[in-house]
Structures are given as C-alpha cells and as structure tokens.
C-alpha cells in the first residue's frame, strides 16, 4: 500500500496513526475559541485540525432555511445561524496561521464548490469530504480537480454510494474513513468490522475511522483493527451550546486518546514472532527444557 502524504505526514499502515482534531463548528463563530481548540489539539499531539466551510446560501438545504432556532445570539432562522458561525477569509487566515505555527496541518470540509475555491486560495494541504457530501458529485468533481489529497468520510452511505464517490475522486491520493453519522454514536452502531470491509474493497487506499461516540474505547479499538487515521470532534466543554459539543472530547479526553493511540501503535509491532530481550532472563530462570 502506498502511503498518502498530507503536509509533512504520511498516512498508511506502516506510519503512525494520523490524528485529526475536528473543530468543525465547535468554535461557534469565535476566532479566540478556534485558537484555543487548536492549542488543545497541538498540546495533545495531534497532527491536524479540521474545520467546516460552507457558502450558506448554497449549502443550506431549502427546507431548513427558515426553520427557527434558538442561539446564543437570540432566535434566528437556520440560514441566519449558518451565516453567523461562518469565518471569513481574514479569520481563516488568522486561525490557519495559528495552526501552522503550532505545527499542525489544517484543512476543512467544503460543503459546496465555491467553498472548495475559497480553501484552495488559502493553500490548504488537503480536503475532507463530510459524510453528508458523499453523494454530491458536483462537489466531488471540484475536489478531484484540485489534485490535493482527499479524506472521505463514509457515514450515512451505502457501499454503492462510496464506490461512486471513489470513482470520481480516484484512489491515488485518497484516504477513506469508516464512520457512522449518529451523534452521539451508540456502540451498537459503530460497526467497526466495516474497517476490514473497506480495506478489502479498496486495496491500496488507507482506511481510518471518524468517531462520534462518547469516550475513547471505540476509537482505540478502531486503531487496533488497523485504522490508519482517527478523527474526533473536540470541545472545551461538552455542555456548550451547539450541535456537536455533546459528541466531542474535552481536552483531557483528547489528550488521553492521542496518548493511548501511540501506545497501541507501539504494541501492535510488526507481526514477526521473536524472543524479545526482556524475555531472556525469565526464559533462563523458568524454562526447564531447551531445544
């Protein structure tokens, strides 16, 4: 399998797990909060932070636009809310520079073709396809045209829909993430054996995991099953207002996740059965028959 290069990192089975801190919209439209979350990711030892980029007038579904929503800024339509939490170019430059200075790759999930162009102008190192966008072939074609590495989440999608997306995106610079788009994710819907299904279906493509569960166990099990990348939402406080905070990890939880991912990476080894140096003294003391 050929590893996929993103920034200064490589994603593949013989590489350290690529850990993505999904900030998404958990910044609530606040640059200071976004920077604080970038710091959380960097301090924990992640490799990347990810945001979401929309052109609200295009990306907001028609039937959702006038739905009223209570927000920290008062009651407003869903479309107004989407405008309220979007960062403009100057704000993205500020948070992108902060991520770079903290040693992180940064990119976003564009939800429409103009957002792809917006992110390209900012020089992102990769693009992410959100699970909701797997069937948006116009968007996928715009992403494929960039020539950048693409990370494809597969929640709420059938294998046929994923096949169609891969056909458009190509497999040369592609990373696929198993995901289930339930927030928060109950264990019975995690279906982690799908990682092996995707590995068999798309040979040569690194397969990872994007999780929306509470806690760490499912993400760590995904690593043990061969996930080459792990993406988790992060927040400063799960009780904050917003749709994704409850399914996010707080700073200490995210730090523990990265720590445990690294321990599992060391523990998996290379699969070659051997006698390790630490076994020599017990072997001399305990083994009665030597052959």
Query: Percent helix among the residues?
Result: 25-40%
Q: Could you give the order of the helices and strands? A: EEEHEHEEHHEHEHEHEHEHEHH
Q: What is the CA-CA span between the terminal residues?
A: 39 Å
Round the Cα radius of gyration to an integer and report it. Answer: 20 Å
Provide the low-confidence segments as ranges: none
Tell me about the biggest sheet?
8 strands, parallel
Number of H- or I-type helical stretches: 11
What portion of the residues fall into strands of 2 or more residues? 15-25%
Total beta strand runs: 12
Spatially, the strands of the biggest sheet line up as 7-4-3-12-11-10-9-8
Write down the overall mean pLDDT. 95
* Alpha-beta content class: alpha/beta
Principal-axis shape: globular
In short:
This protein is α/β, with parallel strands linked by helices and 291 residues long. Helix content is 39%, strand content 19%. The protein has 11 helices and 12 strands.
Output the keywords.
291 residues, alpha/beta, eight-stranded parallel beta sheet, 11 helices, globular
Task: Explain this structure.
The chain has an eight-stranded parallel beta sheet. Helix 1 runs parallel beside helix 4, helix 5 (113-121) runs parallel beside helix 6 and helix 9 (217-224) runs parallel beside helix 10 (251-268). It is built from eleven helices and twelve strands. The radius of gyration is 20 Å and the shape is globular. It has helices at 31-44, 56-59, 78-85, 89-101, 113-121, 137-146, 159-169, 194-201, 217-224, 251-268, 277-286, and strands spanning 4-6, 9-11, 18-24, 48-53, 68-71, 74-77, 105-110, 127-129, 150-153, 174-179, 207-211, 229-233. A hairpin with a 2-residue loop joins strand 1 and strand 2 (9-11). The model has no long low-confidence stretch (mean pLDDT 95). The protein has 291 residues and is α/β, with parallel strands linked by helices. It comes from Protaetiibacter mangrovi. Pfam families: NeuB. InterPro entries: Aldolase_TIM (IPR013785), PseI-like (IPR051690), PseI/NeuA/B-like_N (IPR013132). Residues 37-273 form the PseI/NeuA/B-like domain. This is N-acetylneuraminate synthase family protein.
């Amino acid at each position: 399998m050929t590893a996929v290069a993103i920034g200064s990192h490589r994603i593949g089975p013989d590489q350290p797990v690529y850990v993505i801190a999904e900030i998404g919209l958990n910044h609530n439209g606040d640059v200071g909060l976004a920077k604080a979350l970038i710091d959380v990711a960097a301090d924990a030892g992640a490799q990347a932070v990810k945001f979401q980029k929309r052109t609200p007038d295009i990306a907001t579904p028609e039937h959702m636009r006038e739905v009223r929503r209570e927000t920290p800024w008062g009651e407003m339509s869903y479309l107004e809310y989407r405008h309220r939490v979007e960062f403009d170019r100057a704000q993205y430059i500020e948070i992108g520079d902060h991520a770079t200075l903290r040693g992180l790759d940064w990119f976003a999930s564009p939800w429409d073709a103009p957002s792809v162009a917006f992110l390209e102008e900012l020089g992102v190192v990769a693009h992410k396809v959100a699970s909701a966008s797997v069937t948006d072939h116009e968007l996928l074609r715009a992403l494929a045209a960039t020539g950048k590495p693409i990370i494809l989440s597969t929640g709420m999608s059938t294998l046929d829909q994923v096949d169609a997306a891969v056909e458009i995106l190509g497999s040369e610079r592609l990373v696929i993430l198993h995901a289930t788009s339930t927030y928060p994710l109950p264990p019975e819907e995690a279906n982690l054996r799908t990682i092996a299904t995707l590995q068999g279906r798309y040979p040569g493509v690194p397969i990872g995991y994007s999780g929306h569960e509470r806690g760490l166990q499912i993400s760590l099990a995904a690593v043990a099953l061969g996930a080459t990348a792990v993406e988790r939402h992060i927040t400063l406080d799960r009780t904050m207002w917003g749709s994704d905070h409850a399914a996010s990890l707080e700073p200490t939880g995210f730090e523990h996740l990265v720590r445990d991912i690294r321990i599992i990476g060391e523990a998996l080894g290379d699969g070659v059965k051997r006698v390790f140096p630490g076994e020599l003294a017990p072997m001399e003391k305990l083994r009665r028959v030597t052959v």
